[in-house]
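The following block was generated as part of the benchmark described in Methods. Ligand: coenzyme A.
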Amino acid sequence: MLQLTHARYLPEAPEHAAAVIALADEAFGPGRFVRAAERVREMVPHDPRLSFTALVDGSVAGSVRQTPIRIGDRHALMLGPLVVKPAHKGLGLGRTLMRLAADAARNAGETAIVLVGDRAYYMPLGYEPMPQGSVEFPGPVDWRRILALPLVAGSLEGLSGRITDR
Ligand SMILES: CC(C)(COP(=O)(O)OP(=O)(O)OC[C@H]1O[C@@H](n2cnc3c(N)ncnc32)[C@H](O)[C@@H]1OP(=O)(O)O)[C@@H](O)C(=O)NCCC(=O)NCCS
Protein backbone atom coordinates (compact mmCIF):
# COMPACT_ATOMS: atom_id res chain seq x y z
CA MET A 1 0.00 0.00 0.00
CA LEU A 2 1.21 3.50 -0.79
CA GLN A 3 1.84 5.63 2.27
CA LEU A 4 0.83 9.23 2.17
CA THR A 5 3.46 11.01 4.21
CA HIS A 6 2.15 14.56 3.96
CA ALA A 7 -1.26 14.03 5.59
CA ARG A 8 -1.86 15.79 8.92
CA TYR A 9 -4.50 14.63 11.36
CA LEU A 10 -6.27 16.97 13.75
CA PRO A 11 -9.31 16.83 15.99
CA GLU A 12 -12.17 18.37 14.01
CA ALA A 13 -12.12 22.17 14.28
CA PRO A 14 -15.03 24.53 13.48
CA GLU A 15 -13.29 25.67 10.29
CA HIS A 16 -13.29 22.07 8.98
CA ALA A 17 -17.04 21.57 9.31
CA ALA A 18 -18.20 22.91 5.94
CA ALA A 19 -15.60 20.87 4.03
CA VAL A 20 -16.44 17.75 6.05
CA ILE A 21 -20.14 18.10 5.22
CA ALA A 22 -19.31 18.66 1.54
CA LEU A 23 -17.18 15.48 1.53
CA ALA A 24 -20.00 13.41 3.00
CA ASP A 25 -22.51 14.91 0.55
CA GLU A 26 -20.20 13.99 -2.31
CA ALA A 27 -19.64 10.43 -1.05
CA PHE A 28 -23.17 9.51 -0.04
CA GLY A 29 -25.39 11.85 -2.05
CA PRO A 30 -28.63 13.48 -0.95
CA GLY A 31 -30.08 10.05 -0.06
CA ARG A 32 -27.84 9.87 2.99
CA PHE A 33 -30.37 11.67 5.17
CA VAL A 34 -32.76 8.74 5.06
CA ARG A 35 -30.10 6.34 6.37
CA ALA A 36 -30.67 5.14 9.92
CA ALA A 37 -27.20 6.22 11.08
CA GLU A 38 -27.85 9.72 9.75
CA ARG A 39 -31.09 9.88 11.74
CA VAL A 40 -29.09 9.28 14.91
CA ARG A 41 -26.72 12.06 13.92
CA GLU A 42 -29.65 14.41 13.38
CA MET A 43 -30.84 13.55 16.90
CA VAL A 44 -27.47 14.01 18.62
CA PRO A 45 -24.54 16.27 17.66
CA HIS A 46 -21.14 14.66 17.09
CA ASP A 47 -18.32 15.32 19.55
CA PRO A 48 -15.55 17.28 17.75
CA ARG A 49 -12.98 16.13 20.34
CA LEU A 50 -13.58 12.52 19.27
CA SER A 51 -13.83 13.38 15.55
CA PHE A 52 -10.82 13.80 13.27
CA THR A 53 -9.91 15.51 10.04
CA ALA A 54 -7.13 14.51 7.64
CA LEU A 55 -5.53 17.46 5.88
CA VAL A 56 -3.48 17.17 2.70
CA ASP A 57 -1.77 20.33 1.51
CA GLY A 58 -3.94 22.21 3.99
CA SER A 59 -7.25 20.95 2.56
CA VAL A 60 -9.69 18.54 4.13
CA ALA A 61 -9.07 15.14 2.50
CA GLY A 62 -10.80 12.87 4.98
CA SER A 63 -12.96 12.85 8.06
CA VAL A 64 -14.38 10.65 10.74
CA ARG A 65 -16.96 11.70 13.30
CA GLN A 66 -18.13 10.12 16.55
CA THR A 67 -21.39 10.79 18.34
CA PRO A 68 -22.08 10.04 22.02
CA ILE A 69 -25.17 7.85 22.38
CA ARG A 70 -26.84 5.39 24.69
CA ILE A 71 -27.65 1.83 23.65
CA GLY A 72 -30.29 0.64 26.07
CA ASP A 73 -28.92 1.84 29.41
CA ARG A 74 -25.24 1.87 28.43
CA HIS A 75 -23.10 4.63 27.00
CA ALA A 76 -21.47 4.04 23.60
CA LEU A 77 -20.23 6.02 20.62
CA MET A 78 -21.60 5.87 17.12
CA LEU A 79 -18.93 6.29 14.46
CA GLY A 80 -19.61 7.88 11.12
CA PRO A 81 -19.51 9.13 8.58
CA LEU A 82 -16.02 7.99 7.63
CA VAL A 83 -15.15 9.52 4.33
CA VAL A 84 -12.02 10.08 2.26
CA LYS A 85 -11.85 12.28 -0.81
CA PRO A 86 -11.79 10.14 -3.98
CA ALA A 87 -8.38 11.51 -5.05
CA HIS A 88 -6.84 10.35 -1.74
CA LYS A 89 -8.42 6.91 -1.39
CA GLY A 90 -6.29 3.82 -0.83
CA LEU A 91 -3.47 5.70 0.87
CA GLY A 92 -4.27 4.75 4.44
CA LEU A 93 -6.16 7.88 5.47
CA GLY A 94 -9.31 5.93 6.31
CA ARG A 95 -7.50 3.40 8.49
CA THR A 96 -5.50 6.13 10.24
CA LEU A 97 -8.67 8.11 10.98
CA MET A 98 -10.26 4.93 12.37
CA ARG A 99 -7.26 4.30 14.63
CA LEU A 100 -7.26 7.90 15.91
CA ALA A 101 -11.00 7.69 16.61
CA ALA A 102 -10.62 4.45 18.58
CA ASP A 103 -7.62 5.77 20.56
CA ALA A 104 -9.42 9.00 21.45
CA ALA A 105 -12.53 7.09 22.48
CA ARG A 106 -10.51 4.74 24.70
CA ASN A 107 -8.66 7.67 26.30
CA ALA A 108 -12.00 9.36 26.98
CA GLY A 109 -13.12 6.30 28.95
CA GLU A 110 -15.61 5.06 26.35
CA THR A 111 -16.16 1.32 26.23
CA ALA A 112 -17.66 0.58 22.79
CA ILE A 113 -18.07 2.09 19.32
CA VAL A 114 -20.86 1.06 16.95
CA LEU A 115 -21.24 1.80 13.25
CA VAL A 116 -23.14 0.73 10.17
CA GLY A 117 -20.75 -0.35 7.44
CA ASP A 118 -19.03 -2.96 5.33
CA ARG A 119 -17.69 -5.94 7.25
CA ALA A 120 -14.82 -6.32 4.76
CA TYR A 121 -13.47 -2.89 5.67
CA TYR A 122 -14.15 -2.71 9.40
CA MET A 123 -13.60 -6.27 10.67
CA PRO A 124 -9.84 -6.15 9.98
CA LEU A 125 -9.84 -3.06 12.23
CA GLY A 126 -11.28 -5.08 15.13
CA TYR A 127 -15.01 -4.46 14.62
CA GLU A 128 -17.35 -7.37 15.29
CA PRO A 129 -20.86 -8.09 13.95
CA MET A 130 -23.60 -7.49 16.51
CA PRO A 131 -26.32 -10.11 16.94
CA GLN A 132 -29.55 -9.58 15.01
CA GLY A 133 -31.99 -7.47 17.03
CA SER A 134 -29.42 -6.24 19.55
CA VAL A 135 -28.90 -2.59 18.59
CA GLU A 136 -32.09 -0.78 17.56
CA PHE A 137 -31.66 2.21 15.25
CA PRO A 138 -34.33 4.88 14.79
CA GLY A 139 -35.01 3.65 11.26
CA PRO A 140 -34.49 0.63 9.06
CA VAL A 141 -30.98 -0.76 8.84
CA ASP A 142 -29.54 -4.04 7.56
CA TRP A 143 -28.54 -5.70 10.85
CA ARG A 144 -25.65 -7.51 9.12
CA ARG A 145 -23.97 -4.12 8.71
CA ILE A 146 -24.16 -3.21 12.41
CA LEU A 147 -20.65 -3.63 13.78
CA ALA A 148 -19.05 -2.73 17.07
CA LEU A 149 -15.57 -2.34 18.51
CA PRO A 150 -15.01 -3.30 22.14
CA LEU A 151 -12.66 -0.79 23.79
CA VAL A 152 -12.70 -2.79 27.01
CA ALA A 153 -12.75 -6.60 27.12
CA GLY A 154 -16.30 -7.96 27.22
CA SER A 155 -17.98 -4.60 26.63
CA LEU A 156 -20.11 -5.88 23.74
CA GLU A 157 -21.66 -8.63 25.84
CA GLY A 158 -25.28 -7.74 26.49
CA LEU A 159 -24.97 -4.46 24.61
CA SER A 160 -28.51 -4.08 23.32
CA GLY A 161 -31.48 -1.77 23.15
CA ARG A 162 -32.63 1.38 21.49
CA ILE A 163 -30.17 4.08 20.45
CA THR A 164 -30.98 7.30 22.29
CA ASP A 165 -29.34 10.54 23.34
CA ARG A 166 -27.29 10.45 26.55
C1 LIG B 1 -14.26 3.58 2.80
C2 LIG B 1 -13.24 4.71 2.75
C3 LIG B 1 -13.48 5.65 3.90
C4 LIG B 1 -11.85 4.11 2.88
O1 LIG B 1 -10.90 5.14 2.99
P1 LIG B 1 -9.41 4.97 2.40
O2 LIG B 1 -8.57 6.07 2.93
O3 LIG B 1 -9.47 4.79 0.94
O4 LIG B 1 -9.01 3.60 3.09
P2 LIG B 1 -7.57 3.05 3.40
O5 LIG B 1 -6.57 3.64 2.45
O6 LIG B 1 -7.29 3.16 4.84
O7 LIG B 1 -7.79 1.52 3.08
C5 LIG B 1 -7.90 1.15 1.75
C6 LIG B 1 -8.22 -0.34 1.70
O8 LIG B 1 -9.59 -0.53 2.09
C7 LIG B 1 -10.25 -1.21 1.04
N1 LIG B 1 -11.65 -0.76 1.02
C8 LIG B 1 -12.13 0.46 0.77
N2 LIG B 1 -13.48 0.45 0.85
C9 LIG B 1 -13.83 -0.80 1.19
C10 LIG B 1 -15.07 -1.43 1.41
N3 LIG B 1 -16.23 -0.79 1.33
N4 LIG B 1 -15.05 -2.75 1.71
C11 LIG B 1 -13.90 -3.44 1.81
N5 LIG B 1 -12.68 -2.88 1.61
C12 LIG B 1 -12.67 -1.58 1.30
C13 LIG B 1 -9.50 -0.82 -0.21
O9 LIG B 1 -9.71 -1.77 -1.22
C14 LIG B 1 -8.06 -0.84 0.29
O10 LIG B 1 -7.57 -2.17 0.37
P3 LIG B 1 -5.98 -2.49 0.26
O11 LIG B 1 -5.30 -1.76 1.38
O12 LIG B 1 -5.92 -3.96 0.38
O13 LIG B 1 -5.60 -1.94 -1.08
C15 LIG B 1 -13.29 5.49 1.42
O14 LIG B 1 -13.16 4.59 0.37
C16 LIG B 1 -14.58 6.30 1.24
O15 LIG B 1 -14.64 7.47 1.62
N6 LIG B 1 -15.61 5.70 0.63
C17 LIG B 1 -16.87 6.37 0.40
C18 LIG B 1 -17.62 6.57 1.69
C19 LIG B 1 -17.83 5.27 2.43
O16 LIG B 1 -18.20 4.26 1.86
N7 LIG B 1 -17.59 5.33 3.76
C20 LIG B 1 -17.72 4.19 4.60
C21 LIG B 1 -19.13 4.01 5.03
S1 LIG B 1 -19.41 2.31 5.39
